[in-house]
Design goal:
Keywords: Hydrogen ion transport, Ion transport, Membrane, Transmembrane, Transmembrane helix, Transport
Shape: extended
Radius of gyration: 43 Å
Membrane topology: Multi-pass membrane protein
Subcellular location: Membrane
Main location: membrane
Largest sheet: 5 strands, antiparallel
Distance between the termini: 33 Å
Number of helices: 23
GO cellular component, one term: vacuolar proton-transporting V-type ATPase, V0 domain
Length: 808
């Protein structure tokens, strides 16, 4: 498995008999190493050969989506059994899906009708109860008032009394006015407006009585739970009745008949209650049948869904093939890795044999100058690191892949900023949980954040391991130092150790064997010492990684046989970078080795301002002044070296190419797709010399400025490492130690809880994300920017494994 260069690719030409085309494409999907080119790009989807089959598969996919929606509404989930075991014929499946859909639609339709009737009966029962209460209380009140009136007027006669009584007795009952009434339910939110409109429309000639229904009821029309009021409206006359009916309709008020006779009311309530009980039993039976049907569908759903996706993808690929003039064969073109040639030919032969075809499929390799897709063979460990690189840009075909180095450099630079072996152990335990249970998690649908964390579990594991390593170097365990590798090399001047923070410590034994001496922590010199150490270490790491990036540009140019980029890009760039910042790295190492007190800031500044002045006490080694003059001269020479020669040489090459003076022998090489030497974007017909000059000028200025800014950018390693260390120290000293000092159990428990939440929330989540993003920037800009073009396109083979992972 070679990750440094993408797999050699070839453009293949397939001629497949029509009778074995379906099976051949299916077997290629199982193999997953052939990317079809669309040979019918000028045709619309409806003009292609297999448009009918795709439409058919789309209809089956629609039915499956319908089943999934119904299962989700019912609270069921498809069975998680393997979807790959498929012995179902597509025609049988189509018939079966149609039958299930028809049955399910019929069940749903009947259930909706029953639910509608059930909701109406429930509302009707409420109207009968509430309106009956109103009539009963009104009749009782009227009877009581009549009795009271009769008692008050017994014996109180007048001259008019006989005449009035006689008039009342002689009145025709048919001429007495009878009030009509309408009853029903209105949504509570509309009840006030309903009452106001009724009053205005009838000019107050109605009597409205409302009763609040305690619990929300299911509206028969919308099927949703709504808070409602029971109303009864008394009116006189047909005109008032028509107005009331229109207003009820406008406000969505459901009207129900009502009898003023108490006996009839009781009979109606009894009948409605019986119907409600019967409907409830019927609805429950229907829901049980529907649930059983959905369970049957859910058990086979994944298998059916995969089969439909598979069939649709096969016909979609077949639509990319063109029919030859005899209309007996299909012609395909596509990319495949060179190593897969024999596998593809074996698959095509197997398809021919299985179909009993008399004519075999033909596999040919085509010669082309088209840029092939990029394909890296990765596994579950390397894929996440490759994704980090691909997020920046897909590597150009056969370009050096930064992913190889990213496997080590990315977690290491993260760990430089996150160095604490206690926090590293916490990260390691968290990611080991995902790694140990990866089979279970890979078969489940996870949330966005959890899925992203699970996908990068091996990246986090490497980050945690490197964090433990750098934490041991920094000697920090939740900011607490330990004497893990022996005793400290330093001791106090006297046994009382009172001068440890004022006068300082003295060396009493051999140097601490690994990492930072534990005595540095908590001393007066801790911050200046660690600042100096981490700052210089960041510069060394940055210069080393930038040199690696420039060196990779040499290997790219060498691989593509591009001598221009070797002599006029790589050489001046490596000279310029190391003349200035490589020299700074040398000074840092020499100063560490010699223990000199020289001021590196002064040396670097006056190297430019006064290169001929005597160095004095800042001289670190013999011949330093002469070396500085040579390096300064080389840096100044490197800039025009990058700027001027390359455009003129490109122009010369262009002119020679068009005069026919640039012919070369055609050698037989293993890779027919090897790019031509000097295949550059400037080598086309419209060669604009001014554009090339401007482009080279921009590139040169960018590199010179980036050499300074990128070196400074690596100081983020020092800054974030210091911030992480100080935050960890604050949480330990100001929370945990402070709570311990109170000698109170409750305060100690609160302190431990605050410390744990602060450590997890800030240091293990926010700081991890921060260090991850900064390490990402250092790789994308400072490292990959030196050599990585990233203008290729990815190899997407026709594979059923990829089809099954796609979301509809």
């Amino acid at each position: 498995m070679d990750l440094l260069r993408s797999e050699p690719m070839q453009l293949a030409h397939l001629i497949i008999p029509i009778e074995s085309a379906y099976r051949a494409v299916s077997y290629l999907g199982d193999l997953g190493l052939f990317q079809f080119k669309d040979l019918n790009a000028e045709k619309s989807p409806f003009q292609r050969t297999y448009a009918g089959q795709i439409k058919r598969c789309g209809e089956m996919a629609r039915k499956l989506r319908f089943f999934k929606e119904q299962m989700a509404k019912a609270g069921l989930s498809p069975s998680s059994r393997s979807a790959r075991v498929s012995n179902v014929d597509l025609n049988d499946l189509e018939v079966k899906l149609g039958e299930f859909e028809g049955e399910l639609l019929e069940i749903n339709s009947n259930n909706e009708k029953l639910q509608h009737t059930y909701s109406e009966l429930l509302e009707y029962k409420l109207v009968l109860q509430k309106a009956g209460e109103f009539f009963y209380s009104a009749q009782n009140g009227a009877a009581a008032q009549q009795r009271e009136y009769d008692v008050q007027h017994i014996g109180e006669g007048s001259i008019d009394s006989p005449l009035l009584i006689e008039q009342e007795m002689t009145t025709d009952p048919s001429k007495q006015v009878r009030l009509g009434y309408v009853s029903g339910l209105v949504p509570r939110a509309k009840s006030i407006a309903f009452e106001r409109i009724l009053f205005r429309a009838t000019r107050g000639n109605v009597f409205l009585k409302q009763a609040v229904v305690d619990d929300p009821v299911i509206d028969p029309v919308s099927g949703e739970k709504v808070e409602k009021n029971v109303f009864i409206i008394f009116f006189s006359g047909e005109r008032a009745k028509n107005k009331i009916l229109k207003i009820c309709e406008a406000f969505g008020a459901n009207r129900y008949p009502f009898a003023d006779d108490l006996g009839k009311q009781f009979q109606m309530i009894t009948e409605v209650s019986g119907k409600i009980s019967e409907l409830k039993t019927t609805i429950d039976a229907g829901l049980l049948h529907r649930s059983n049907l959905l369970q049957t569908i859910g058990y086979e759903y994944e298998q059916w869904n995969f089969l439909v996706k598979k069939e649709k993808s096969i016909y979609h690929s077949l639509n990319m093939l063109s029919i030859d003039v005899t209309k007996k064969c299909l012609v395909a073109e596509g990319w495949c890795p060179v190593f897969a040639s024999n596998q593809i030919q074996n698959v095509l032969q197997q398809a021919t044999f299985d179909c009993n075809s008399q004519v075999g499929a033909i596999f040919q390799v085509l010669q082309t100058k088209e840029l092939p897709p990029t394909y890296f063979r990765t596994n579950k460990f390397t894929s996440a690191f490759q994704e980090i690189v691909d997020a920046y840009g897909i590597a150009k075909y056969r370009e050096a892949n930064p992913g190889v180095f990213t496997i080590v450099t990315f977690p290491f630079l993260f760990a430089v900023m996150f160095g604490d072996w206690g926090h590293g152990i916490c990260l390691l335990l968290a990611t080991l949980y995902f790694i140990i249970r990866e089979k279970k998690f890979s078969s489940q649908k996870l949330g966005d954040i959890v899925e992203m964390t699970f996908g990068g579990r091996y990246v986090i594991m490497m980050m945690a391991l490197f964090s433990i390593y750098t934490g041991l170097i920094y000697n920090e365990f939740f900011s607490v130092p330990f004497e893990l590798f022996g005793k400290s090399a330093y001791g106090c001047r006297d046994p009382s150790c009172r001068d440890a923070t004022t006068v300082g410590l003295i060396k009493v034994r051999n140097t601490y064997p690994f990492g930072v001496d534990p005595k540095w922590h908590g001393s007066r010199s801790e911050l200046p010492f660690l600042n100096s150490l981490k700052m210089k270490m960041s510069i060394l790491l940055g210069i080393a990684q930038m040199n690696l990036g420039i060196t990779m540009s040499y290997f790219n140019a060498k691989f593509f046989d591009d001598n221009l980029n070797i002599w006029y890009q790589f050489v001046p760039q490596i000279i310029f970078l190391n003349s200035l910042f490589g020299y700074l790295a040398l000074l840092i190492v020499v100063k560490w080795c010699t223990g000199s007190q020289a001021d590196l800031y002064h040396i670097m500044i006056y190297m430019f301002l006064s290169p001929t002045d005597d160095l004095g006490e800042n001289q670190l080694f013999f011949g330093q002044k002469f070396l500085q003059l040579v390096l300064l001269l080389l840096a100044f020479v490197a800039v025009p070296w990058m700027l001027f020669p390359k455009p003129f040489l490109l122009k010369k090459q262009h002119q020679e190419r068009h005069r026919g003076q640039s012919y070369a022998l055609l050698h037989s090489i293993d890779d027919p797709l090897e790019e031509e030497p000097h295949h550059d974007s400037h080598g086309h017909e419209d060669f604009e010399f001014s554009e090339v000059i401007v482009h080279q000028l921009i590139h040169t200025i960018e590199f010179v400025l980036a050499a300074v800014s990128n070196t400074a950018s690596y100081l983020r390693l020092w800054a974030l490492s210091l911030a992480h260390s100080e935050l960890s120290s604050v949480f330990y000293d100001k929370v945990l130690v402070l709570a311990w000092g109170f000698n109170n159990v409750i305060i100690l428990i609160i302190g431990i809880i605050v410390f744990v939440f602060a450590t997890v929330g800030v240091l293990l989540v926010m700081e991890t994300l921060s260090a991850f993003l900064h390490a990402l920037r250092l790789h994308w800009v400072e490292f990959q920017g030196k050599f990585y073009e990233g203008n290729g396109y990815k190899f997407y083979p026709f594979s059923f494994a990829l089809v099954s992972e796609e979301e509809e």
